[in-house]
Amino acid sequence: MLILSRKLGESIVIDGRITVKIVRLEGDIVKLGIDAPIEVPVHRQEVYEEIQRNNREALAGESANVPTLSTKNGASAILPPSQPGKIIAPKTRG
Amino acid sequence: MKTAEMIEPEIQTISGENVIQIPDGLLGFEQFKKYVLLAQPQEAPFMWLRMIENADKRFIVVSPFQIMPDYQPDISSEDVRFLGLNDPEDALVVNIVTLRPNRVPTINLKGPIVINRHTLIAKQVIPNNASKFDVNHPLPVS
Fold first, then answer.
1. What is the pTM for the complete model shown?
2. In DSSP terms, which residues pair with A30 in a beta bridge?
3. How many other β-carbons are positioned within 10 Å of the β-carbon of residue B6?
4. DSSP string, B74-94
C-alpha cells in the first residue's frame, strides 16, 4: 500500500482524473472531498461489506421455501418475463 | 438399486442459452460467475438464482418493483457500459431476499442485481443513490 502524508487542504491525484482532497479535520474524523468523473463510482467501503455480509446470510439451503407476500398483488401475481427494469440508467454512447 | 420409495429428482435442463454470466461474481461470492434464474409459477413473484458451479447454493430473488413500485436505483454509467445496456428496458432487475428464523424476511435494496436481458451478462451493482436504500428492507409477508 502506498502511504502519503497530506496536510489540510492538500490533495492527491489518481490516474490524472480523480482528485482526493483533505477538506477538514475534526478530532479523529477526516473529511475528504472527491472529484471524480461521473462514471467512476465512489462508495464507502462499509457499503460493500454490508452487501457482502447480506449475501452470505441470504444464501439459501436446499430446504428453504420462498415466503408468501401479504400484499394484494403479491402472492398471486406472476412476474411477466418481459417486465422492464425501472432503473435510472444513462444511455451508452455509440 | 431403485426402490419403490425413491423419488425421481426433478430434472432441470440448463442450456447454455439461459446461463447468466456474472463476471465479477456476487459480493462475497466472487469466485462463482455462472448462475441460472429459475422461476415456478406457484412461487411467484419469487425466483431462485442458483449457482451453476455449486448447484446446491442458491438465493431467493424477487423483482424489487413488485415490492416497492417506486424503487429507482440510479445505475452508474460505468455499470451501464459494463452491462452493455442501451436502454433501461434492456435491464432485468432482481434483488436478493434473506430469510432468518423467526424473523420477517428482508430484501436487499442496496445491492440490486442488474441483468442485461439480451446478453444475460449481470452484475450486483451499488447504485449512485445506494444510501437511500436499506440492505434489509422488510418484506410484507403474511
1. 0.79
2. A25
3. 8
4. B--HHHHHHHT-SSGGGEEEE
pLDDT at B12 over 50: no
Q: What is the pLDDT of residues B96-133, one digit of tens each?
A: 999 988 889 999 999 999 999 999 999 999 999 999 99
CA distance B24 to A57: 19
Closest C-alpha among B39, B87, B123, B137 to residue A58: B137
CB within 8 Å: A79 and B93: no
The residue count of chain A comes to 94
The answer, for B124 touching chain A at a CB cutoff of 8 Å, is yes
The grid cell for A26 is 475534526
Chain A residue nearest residue B141, CA to CA: A69
Judge: A77–B45 Cβ closer than 8 Å, yes or no: yes
Contact criterion met (CB below 8 Å) for B51 and B34 = yes
Tell me, yes or no, if B59 comes closer than 8 A to chain A by beta carbon: yes
Residues 61-120 of B with CB under 8 A from A: 63, 65-67, 71-81, 84-89, 91-93, 96-100, 105, 108, 110-112, 114
Tens digit of each residue's pLDDT (9 = 90 or more) over A47-88: 999 999 999 999 987 778 888 887 554 433 444 444 444 566
Separation of alpha carbons B131 and B19, rounded Å: 31
If you measure CA to CA, which chain A residue comes closest to B73?
Answer: A87
Distance from CA of B2 to the nearest CA of A (A): 23
pLDDT in tens, B59-94: 999 999 888 888 999 998 889 999 999 988 899 999
